[in-house]
Design brief:
Strand content: under 5%
Helix content: 55-70%
Shape: globular
Radius of gyration: 15 Å
Structural class: mainly alpha
Largest sheet: none
Number of domains: 1
Number of helices: 7
Length: 161
C-alpha cells in the first residue's frame, strides 16, 4: 500500500500534474510520522525531526546532479512543518493512502532525466518531490518495515473502510 502511494506520486509527476504531486509529496512527512505513532498522531516537532533525519541521504553533501540537500531540506522542512500544524491526525493524507489499495494500475513512475529539460518551476517541483519520495523510501526500508507500530497501522488502514 505504501509503495503504491509513492508510485502514485511519481505517476502524477510523469503526467505533469505538478500541484497534485507536490501536495501529495508534502504529505509524506506527516503520513510517515503518523504511521509510526500508535494513535496515528503527528506533530510539527516530529515532522521536523523526520525531515532532518530522512531528507538528506546519509553522508551526502551533494548528489550526482549537484543538488544542495541543505537548502532543499530546509525548504521541505519548513513547508512540511507548516502543513503538520493543521491536524493532529493527518486524516486527509491517511485516507488517500488507505484508498490506494483499491487502485490497480501499473505504475510507470517518473523519469528523473526529464527534470533537466523542464521549466524552472516544474523542475523545482520535480526535485522537491523526488527528494521526499527518496526520503520516504529510505525511511520505510531502513526503519518502518521493521517497526511493529508502522506495520500494525498499515494493516489497520488496509482493513478499515
Amino acid at each position: 500500500m505504501f509503495a503504491g502511494y509513492l508510485s502514485d506520486i511519481e505517476q502524477l509527476l510523469d503526467e505533469e500534474r505538478w500541484e497534485a504531486a507536490q501536495r501529495e509529496a508534502f504529505d509524506l512527512p506527516c503520513v510517515t510520522v503518523a504511521l509510526a505513532d500508535a494513535r496515528l498522531r503527528c506533530s510539527p516537532e516530529l515532522v521536523k525531526t523526520w525531515c532532518q533525519e530522512w531528507i538528506r541521504p546519509p553522508g551526502a553533501e551533494r548528489d550526482a546532479q549537484g543538488l544542495d540537500f541543505e537548502a532543499l531540506g530546509q525548504r521541505i522542512t519548513e513547508r512540511a512543518v507548516q502543513l503538520a500544524g493543521a491536524e493532529v491526525v493527518p486524516m486527509r493524507a491517511l485516507r488517500r493512502l488507505q484508498l490506494r489499495r483499491h487502485v490497480r494500475r501499473l505504475p510507470r513512475g517518473f523519469s528523473h532525466w526529464r527534470a533537466d529539460s523542464l521549466p524552472a518551476p516544474a523542475s523545482e517541483t520535480a526535485e522537491t518531490c523526488s527528494a521526499l519520495l527518496q526520503a520516504a523510501r529510505r525511511w520505510y526500508a531502513r526503519s518502518a518495515c521493521h517497526d511493529p507500530i508502522v506495520q500494525a497501522n498499515l494493516a489497520r488502514l488496509a482493513v478499515l473502510r
